[in-house]
Fold this protein.
Amino acid sequence: MITREESLARVEALAREKEALRRVATLAAGEFNASRLFDCVCEELGRVLGVETTDIIRFGHDGTATVVGAWATGKGPLFAVGMTVPVDGETVTAKMYRSERPQRVDDYGEIGGELAARLRSYRVISAVGAPITVAGRLWGGLMASSERAHAFPPGTEHRIAEFAELVTAALANADARDQLAASRARIVEAGYAERRRLGRDLHDGAQQAFVSAAVTLRLARRSVEDAPEEAAGLIDAAIEQVLEGLRDLRDLAAGIHPSVLTDRGLASALEALASRSPLAVEVEAVPAGRLPPSVETTAYFVVAEALTNAAKHAHCECARASVRLDDGTLIVAVSDDGVGGADAAQGSGLRGLADRVSALGGTLEVQSEADRGTTIMAWLAADAADATRPDGPAAPALPAARR
């Protein structure tokens, strides 16, 4: 039978634990400071459980774990922050690493392994731990240790897990903020690069044609009285130069955003793009329905850039483009039968295209083996949300490169 004093003590302990969780949650929700957060979690957990030491570790890929947070009463923490420990034997650390679930050891006296021996040398007899995950993957663990055997009552794993979940939330928020910042930087840089490209295209294309037309018209004006036939020829040449400039402007405008894409959709825009290509281009499997404008535009530019690269560098005769929906993901694939050997890291066009795709949360991949042609693929969420790469069929295959 539980006495009134015991009942009051339990209520008070529960209140202290909730208050500790609240303090940790407040810190986790603020500006991320890893060392401050880890130290706070370790101290709050240690005081709530009334144990000698608490630790936060981060698992490595080499069978070790690194201490990233520690707290202890009296003589100091078991392991200093930054110290690496082995993940072996049947310790809480090792069992948690294998199972990704909360674990306990009530008595280290009979457990083998390097880490267990080191714990016994520090007079650790029992421990409980809960895993910390980030983006669904095991990141590390939060543990409490005691110099007494069977020091942790049933349910302690759940109590530690509540603190571990707050660390998980803080790490996930920090990761999301980092990804958002990186995405914004890519979008800004892509905008700068696009403006630089437009400036170069205007300077090298339409502007030169219009400047030439202006010079020709000045010559025609000087010749109109003394040599009218020569003036007429100059005027005809100027007209051709103006028309050439207009064609350049139309091509440039199509590179910005083709009107047929807005008016008639992706399938019509890709058919028009294929008809203008110097290559024999087959367009297949384009969804008939409309998609969000950002998704259609990005898919269009993936095909446009892939065909441009094929025409300029691949020495190919034909290309094939497909756009299909697979469980909410738009998969764009463009293959050619050229010489291959394309490197996305070396081409500004493909790098800019990768930025454009990643700005929508998508993925771009270039497959280009020598003498086997090139395939460019992009995965985009059809609703412009995060895109994932499904395990679907590969890109359309073309014959091996012809010489």
DSSP finds eleven helices and eleven strands in the chain. Residues 385-403 have pLDDT under 50 and may be disordered. The longest helix spans residues 156-204. The chain has three domains: 4-178, 205-256, 261-403.
